[in-house]
Amino acid sequence: MSIATQIVKDMNTAREQVIAMCGFEESELNQLQWEGAIQCLEKVLQSDAHGIAELPKTPAFWAWWREQWYRRDIAFIENLRFDSFFLKYTCALPGQSIRIMMDSQSALQAMYMMYHRISESNPLINSYSMEVSFHCLIKELASKK
Questions:
Q1: Which own/partner pairs from 88-91 qualify as long-range (CB within 8 Å, at least 24 positions apart)?
Q2: Do the strands 88-92 and 81-83 form a parallel or antiparallel pair, or are they unpaired?
Q3: Contact predicate 33/69, CB 8 Å
Q4: What is the CA radius of gyration of the chain?
Q5: What is the pLDDT of residues 34-54, one digit of tens each?
């Protein structure tokens, strides 16, 4: 199996885990991912309306965005713990160590969305590596023109 095939398989497995734990429908997760991509572009590109409109039309952008989403899925999954005494999940907010107990699927969904929220306070979004990888994507797309 090639590395690319294994990565796609891992991404799909993480997605299936999120759907099973949080109770999302596939279409809901697709919508969240789409909205997150647009919010990310608006945050990074700010007043570049052309870039915000054109980047989502490129396969390279979506490959990059799926990888970014997958990284946050993995961070969420790795932070999620099942408390066998209380029979509930606990999870730390992104970048924090205090664990929060969640007693419903809607609470799990809310925590999942915290891991994917495009905001200044989310260390998973405001990471140097994400910024560098975005600029590499732009450079790669510019060189193809």
A1: 89/21
A2: antiparallel
A3: yes
A4: 16
A5: 999 998 888 888 888 888 888
Distance of CA 56 to the CA centre of its chain: 16
16 conformational bin, left if phi > 0, alpha if psi -120 to 50, beta if neither:
alpha
Phi, psi (degrees; rounded to nearest 5) at 89: -85, 150
Q: Where are the domains of the chain?
A: 3-143
Q: For 108-130, how does the pLDDT look when each residue is reduced to its tens digit (9 = 90+)?
A: 999 999 998 876 565 555 555 56
Count the alpha carbons within 13 Å of 83 in the hemisphere toward its beta carbon.
12
Query: How many angstroms separate the Cα of 93 from the Cα of each of 34, 106, 110?
Result: 22, 16, 11
State the helix-helix crossing angle for 26-45 and 105-116, rounded to 10 degrees. Answer: 30
